[in-house]
Design brief:
The structure is a homodimer. The first copy, chain A, has about 600 residues and is mainly alpha-helical. Helices cover about 45% and strands about 5% of the residues of chain A. In chain A, the strands form 5 sheets. Chain A has a two-stranded antiparallel sheet with strand order 1-2. Chain A has a two-stranded antiparallel sheet with strand order 3-6. The longest helix of chain A has about 35 residues, at about 140-180. Chains A, B: InterPro entries: CBS_dom, CBS_dom_sf, Cl-channel/antiporter, Cl-channel_core, Cl_channel_pln, ClC.
């Protein structure tokens, strides 16, 4: 939070929406872990979130709240969470996210109302709509459409180029940042100096412009924000480039979007500003400052749109301010590759419903163009960070493999009543999160799959030390008498039991423990001849962590995809390729898979 | 299309958006079937839609296009399709639906522009935003919020009551309608007469009001639409109730939403109009006229909101026109139970982004209140029509059952190389769409599940008459040489091969056919001890039609849920309860399940 405030205040070309999404997700994660017992910030009812599904849902809602607060766009926030953040969705979640953002909107609105008198600096200004364009009446004809299609195509190319260059720069930065704190700080200082030099140096290149006659009162601007900055010009004159540089990013966007000001900026000023912002946006993202990409992309896109609008002024009657909006849309489509959510966010930012068809058109064109070059910027970052992410669709090569093909070893299984020593050894020597349980003779006639036990439940059971001298099956209720449901609740990250914390005597190690009561007796299974593509789809669509592979022939098998848990701030992605497999006997087991979102782990990822 | 045009023109209290959604879905289905060969409306590339998934996607897009056209709300259309219509969603579909509605928006916009000169009656009026409220500046404080919460609560109760009464009335109507065409027509005539009596009779009850001084020019209104209808009043006076009744429904809504007209309607007029519209909306839906529910609900809700706004005028400073908007939102939330899509549709209808937080609040409150009484109106209709619909979540009782518990018989299986006569008999005596294929000795050492063949593929294979004298396994490529991929493409509804169309000689019936090449060797399977709730979730989340149940113990099993294919106009729902099961040997097989949407079958369902 503080990093973001200081970064934005320092005048970096970066957005505040990335850190705000991150903040929202972090708060949600904190609540999902049941609060913090260390700082006495906990509530008894928070324990209901102590399971994977509700915690994920909560974090998705937190992400939606972050977007909603950053753009003052409640519906856009829900859609962003749907389109970009969540890899799994259900109608109850839609409704909860909507509730969250409604609360955000009401709170924001109340605070803005409270601050309208100017007590809170710039906060109270603009109301819920940051760049209000609703007063403009836009009519457009066929030449306008042609101009807009051209705008979308070039915007898509610039967006794709942005992603390409950002990828290269982030790769260089990651090498620099790995060298330690001094390198990080030096890099930040260099970018900071370059930004300052651009902001202060470039306006010297622009010539002074006479104030328009109808705006003599506000020109040149006095104060922190406004359209006309004086900057070394004589009274009655303003410097166009300074008006763009010497404002907050939000105000610069507002200036670019403003209509009826076609001659406000020199072509040369706009062009220099565009190049500067495009490059500064690229070099700023990835330094050791919490940053988002939305604002730089909108800013560069709006400048680009205004340039195109001014150039095409002869064939199109649309205002350059509206072209700026469409230019911003084309850049967003070209870099983020989102459609519905960007469209709604832009709508909520500008309140300009008349332009909706054009915004949709531009988004579609630029996304299509950019998709032919490379992937969306968030996908690229996930790939670059090496975070394991499973695409929603199966990779083509998977169609030629079956689930049995990816089976490898060694895999550890337990029998329904297992020796304590064997369990402890298995937990110590492996990092697996799930183990199949197979009843073997003499407990049953033939080997039979009981289900799956997960590491954390095993640890709780071991800690209870309900051991037996002989390998006999107990009744399930016996375990339930000893343990409550909340004993097995998912602990906060880094807080669960560890095998290193448990100690057993030699005698205990020789005893037996019944796993039937804690085994999940309904694990999802696939037959070994199942196409890997379909198994991957099952895995992804149902949000599984473990998938058992059973044989066509009598013997039971289980498959593990031991995917390193990786995370990206809000959304979590899993690489289907980063798999390593284990087998033992003839069993395999998919392992710790869709742990969607663990915002606290992703300190290094800025968005 | 014509029914809807005539119904709306006749002045019924019904919406045009239901039939438009239906129309969109029908056109999409027509294209998805590859056009109509009978009417020479076909294209070669349409054959790429001849599979289930693309056809479903296309119909979802058609539904989105219908909503987008009805409300001139492109983003709302996408969200409606997401929230209400589609039971299965993927990101590519989101993007396609968005593309469809963008095209709709551009076409609509072009047509409106073309019609602006008045050549097309009322069509060109209002532009893309039907009820423009953007000019009003709304500020609200705590008492307003209290008033709005009250509005939401009562709106939710009225919405729930609407659903309850509609359910009862539709049950009575379905009895009447079953008696044949004369009863249907008589019912329609009666409703028509009642509507006419209300429209013409009720305004006599209202007294004349003097025209406001600032609106002398437009008062009383001359022409088809307007705020002030003269109706038997002296010049300079208008009849408030006539202004509501003697307009199109759209204009009545516009009048109710209009701000700065707090004293335009008498309280008594509003009250009578509310009761009349509430009741007429209930009795009109379900008669033999294509009708939607959105407009009647918005109309009743807006009137209700205006009444509340006028009553609470002393404690709230909000304009009654804005209260009308919130009232409409509360009724929509109370009946439809959608959140995001209704919110965006209202936003796109009114262009009033300032009110967004309040609209969200009201929607949430009324939905929550109404949810405690009954289900959403569409869900109710699905239940009433007896359409089999599977909820996205498993029913609680399923948690206590395992997949094996719902296994029943008889089930028919084929071996990998099966006698033609056995296949023909099986296809003739059952209506099953899928049959498991099990290789048995001597083909393999132990019985082994090969996969699943579906009826239509079997019929194609049988028609090709590639039979053998001896039961030997052929190479797969042999079949592929005889048949192209498009031979197995899904035919249009009612156009596929039927077993009755195929004839075989006695000699052929004694021959064998190899099913290996056409069997789906990767059917999704569950173990018989899998919890039924999890099996149902698998079925629903992956959009399956068939799910095989395999035993823990060596013997292979398959489970069929023989669900009658049912459809609801656009969305398709499946009852998890309407299941009947078949078994044979020890196998079961889930049958024809998520055939989402077949609009042509649902003549009787109006929306």
């Amino acid at each position: 939070i503080f990093g973001s405030i200081l970064g934005v205040s320092a005048g970096f070309v970066l957005g505040k929406e990335g850190p705000m999404v991150h903040t929202g997700a972090c708060i949600a994660n904190l609540l999902g872990q049941g609060g913090s017992r260390k700082y006495h910030l906990t509530c008894n009812w928070l324990r209901y979130f102590k399971n994977d599904r509700d915690r994920r849902d909560l974090i998705t809602c937190g992400c939606a709240a972050g977007v909603a607060a950053a753009f003052r766009a409640p519906v856009g926030g829900v859609l962003f969470a749907l389109e970009e953040a969540a890899s799994w969705w259900r109608s109850a979640l839609l409704w909860r996210a909507f509730f969250t953002t409604a609360v955000v909107a009401v709170v924001l609105r109340t605070l803005i109302e409270f601050c309208r008198s100017g007590k809170c600096g710039l906060f109270g200004q603009g109301g819920l709509i940051m760049f209000d364009l609703s007063s403009t009446v836009a009519t457009y004809s066929s030449p306008d459409l042609l101009a807009i299609i051209l705008l979308g195509i070039i915007g898509g190319i610039f967006g794709g180029l942005f992603n390409f260059l950002l990828d290269k720069i982030l790769r260089i930065y990651s090498i620099i940042n790995e060298r330690g704190a001094p390198s990080k700080i030096l890099l930040t200082i260099i970018v900071s100096v370059i930004t300052s030099m651009c902001s202060y140096g470039l306006p010297w290149l622009a010539s002074c412009t006479q104030c328009p006659e109808d705006a003599v009162e506000q020109c040149p601007t006095v104060g922190r924000s406004g359209n006309y900055k004086n900057f070394q010009c004589p009274p009655g004159y303003y410097n166009g480039m300074a008006s763009l540089f010497f404002n907050t990013n939000d105000d610069a966007i507002r200036n670019l979007f403003s209509t009826g000001t076609a001659t406000e900026y020199h072509m040369s000023s706009l062009f220099i500003f565009f190049v500067a912002i495009y490059c500064l946006g690229l070099v700023t993202y990835g330094i050791a400052v919490p940053s988002g990409l939305f604002i730089p992309v909108i800013l560069a896109g709006a400048t680009y749109g205004r340039i195109v609008g001014t150039l095409l002024g002869s064939i199109s009657s649309l205002d350059p301010g509206l072209f700026a909006l469409l230019g911003a849309a084309s850049f967003l489509g070209g870099t983020m590759r989102m459609t519905v959510s960007v469209c709604v966010i832009l709508l909520e930012l500008t309140n300009d419903l008349q332009m909706l068809p054009l915004v949709m058109l531009v988004l579609l064109i630029s996304k299509t163009i950019a998709d032919s070059f490379n992937k969306g910027v968030y996908d690229q970052i996930v790939v670059m960070k090496g975070l394991p992410y499973m695409e929603a669709h199966a990779e083509p090569y998977m169609r030629h493999l079956v689930a049995g093909d990816v089976v490898t070893g060694p895999l550890i299984t337990f029998s329904g009543v297992e020796k304590v020593g064997d369990i402890v050894t298995a937990l110590r020597i492996t990092g697996h999160n799930g183990f199949p349980v197979v009843d073997e003779p003499p407990l049953t006639e033939v080997p039979e799959l009981v289900g799956l036990v997960i590491r954390s439940h095993l640890l709780v059971l071991l800690k209870g030390k309900m051991f037996m001298k002989e390998p006999v099956k107990m009744s399930g209720s016996f375990v339930m008498e000893r343990f409550g449901a909340f004993d097995f609740a998912k602990a906060g990250s880094g807080k669960g039991l560890k095998i290193e914390d448990l100690h057993f005597t030699d005698e205990e190690m020789q005893m037996y423990v019944d796993l039937h009561a804690i085994a999940n007796t309904s694990p999802y299974t696939v037959v070994e001849t199942m196409s890997l593509a379909k198994a991957a789809l099952l895995f992804r669509e149902l949000g599984l962590r473990h998938l058992l592979v059973v044989p066509k022939t009598p013997y039971v098998r289980v498959l593990t995809l031991s995917l390193t848990i990786y995370i990206m701030c809000v959304c979590v992605f899993f690489f289907s390729r980063v798999m390593h497999f284990l087998t033992h006997y003839n069993m395999i087991l998919y392992q710790p898979f869709p742990l969607w979102i663990v915002p606290f782990i992703c300190k290094g990822v800025h968005r």
